[in-house]
Amino acid sequence: MKHMNSEVKEERTSNxxxxxxxxxxxxxxxxxxxxxxxxxxxxxxxxYTAAVKSMLQSFHNFFYASFDPxxxxxxxxxxxxxxxxxxxxxxxxxxxxxxxxxxxxxxxGSVLLLYVLIKRTFGVWAGRxxxxxxxxxxxxxxxSRTNNIDSMLVFTLLLATWMLFRAVRTVKFGWVLAAFAMIxxxxxxxxxxxxxxxxxxxxxxxxxxxxxxxxxIAFLTTATxxxxxxxxxxAVVVDSTSADKRPxxxxxxxxxxxxxxxxxxxxxxxxxxxxxxxxxxxxxxxxEQQTASxxxxxxxxxxxxxxxxxxxxxSSFSQKMQAPGGGNQxxxxxxxxxxxxxxxxxxxxxxxxxxxxxxxxxxxxLFAGVKFKGPYTAKQKESLFWLAWLLPVAVFFSIAGFxxxxxxxxxxxxxxxxxxxxxxxxxxxxxxxxxxxSWLLPGGILTTAALQVYIMSPYVSSIGVAPIxxxxxxxxxxxxxxxxxxxxxxxxTNYLGAAAMVVLLAMPAYWAMTPIxxxxxxxxxSAGPDSSSGMGGPxxxxxxxxxxGFNGMQPPGSSxxxxxxxxxxxxxxxxxxxxxxxxxxxxxxxxxxxxxxSSKSSSSKRKSGGMNAEVNQKLLNYLTKNNTGEKYLFAxxxxxxxxxxxxxxxxxxxxxxxxxxxxxxxxxxxxxxMIKKGEVKxxxxxxxxxxGQSDVITWIKENSKEIPSSKWQSTSSxxxxxxxxxxxxxxxxxx
Length: 735
Prior knowledge:
The protein has helices at residues 2-15, 23-35, 46-55, 59-64, 80-92, 96-122, 124-136, 139-144, 150-170, 173-190, 198-208, 213-239, 257-271, 288-295, 307-320, 349-352, 356-366, 378-399, 412-432, 440-456, 460-463, 465-484, 491-517, 617-625, 639-649, 668-676, 694-702, and strands at 635-636, 654-655, 682-685, 705-706, 728-731. By secondary structure, it is mainly alpha-helical. A 5-stranded mixed beta sheet has the order 2-1-3-5-4, with helices on both faces.
């Protein structure tokens, strides 16, 4: 207890000191990587941006996180982050940068929080290095530059960590409740992903708190109950509300938040089960790749391929894109093959694993001499916390059936924490010991440099041989010189140690800048020379490696023009074109998204020629002119075609099957009732997202009048070729 009191006094004393001048450039680097040029991303992730546009229009839409202004269907995530984005858009105006800003600030905040957490126990230099490592972890700024949820999620979990550490230091139960309640808030950001840190919270509190076992159990039980109550609070309100009084819960199969949380956004992420159920009948389970294949089979040089040709493409593509981790060497969406070394495979390693060998050596050093029964020092206790965060999350990503690269940001805090704490600890052991511990520092430097050479080797065509050879050579030289000079304690040795740390952070720093250099992808962010594709992996052989991963896509009603080979759907093999398989929101089956909603490397606004490039103005003019009071401007199969028109006009557009087109929201009888009530009469069908809607789509085609394309279809050719341009506009009026 005396030790605890001394720590609290030391903390109060340090807080009175001036700001750490070494921290200032670290924060500025993090701010640059997270904020620079976000103003050029006009629409960010269109699926989420459309929701913010809708949520600005009414409290009903705001509370339920409605995707469309009509309150037809919600987005596929809880609302807390989107509440924050909507407030930001209300304050600063509706822009791409205003919905990105909260996540960018959260990324910067995470760097600061990690500095505070590590500095207090491991020392100021450990805090500085941990903060720098966090800011330079490539996936961190890549995610922070988008309106995806994960940056805010990590910040919230680090804030909960700060509260937990304070609870242990002060032995105050209120801070325990606050920490676990904050995890409940995080649950309402991205559901079960927030619970990944629970093992660390439980283990640390049990080991570090100096109270009786009876109190520990009572406090943790109460805190957990509060966490669960906060977690399900919004879900209970929504699920207990009559279905006709609220939007359908997007991407669920039973219109339930709890089913979405523990199924689609929970256990299914581990199992990789992304099957869908039809609204009126069940159909065979489809993998995401197969669905994407069927949805994009029209993307060819001809706008009217035969059924046989389409099926051949579908079969060939599906064979290449087998289930997660199978067939393709990079796995589904370039997330590798499940196994113990998955985090070292390309596609994942360059996002998060640059310092993993050094972290492993750091863990060995930090736990050297620890006895199971204790007693434990403050450093050992907090090291146990970060280890209990790191291991379960690493195991999940090593075996999970379905996730996206940017989810790996969950590993950034413990990796950065061990990098900072370990650097100081290994340096101390190197200087003070003559046994095996003194070899941990040069060993960590050598193995980490070797891994970085391995990570960069597939990118030799885009980054050149020099940086790869430089990191390898310098890593070997510095490790060997440090090993030789192990017994010498002088300033040169200090400089060599500092130089080694610079070498190990040089290429992660470059990788962290690639979304700025090459352009990022707001739907599925990743870092690397092909960051605009959002798929990671080796560089493209395409003629323009900076093209969006959604090149080949075109807004509804645009003319097909002439396609090129670069516009064809390709399996995720690391090329920039493979980004066409990405899905907004990190979710379900939809693979089509207009090119303009991707991020591109450009000094101008990333909007591919202005807002009219995302919306077929001739179609919009036709629909607006012929609207006779209908609630919905038009209906379409899924969110892809709907999102740009919602963003452009702020008017309701019905995504009949939700995000992916597979939600069992609509039946023929419901649609008839809506048409008779005058709520909708125009339907744009492009062959996308039919899963679970085949009966509805068949009925529409059989009972509608096809509108001649000359009245609404744009004749201008575009580089954005794709199946959206091959759709058909229908009109239905029932009396």
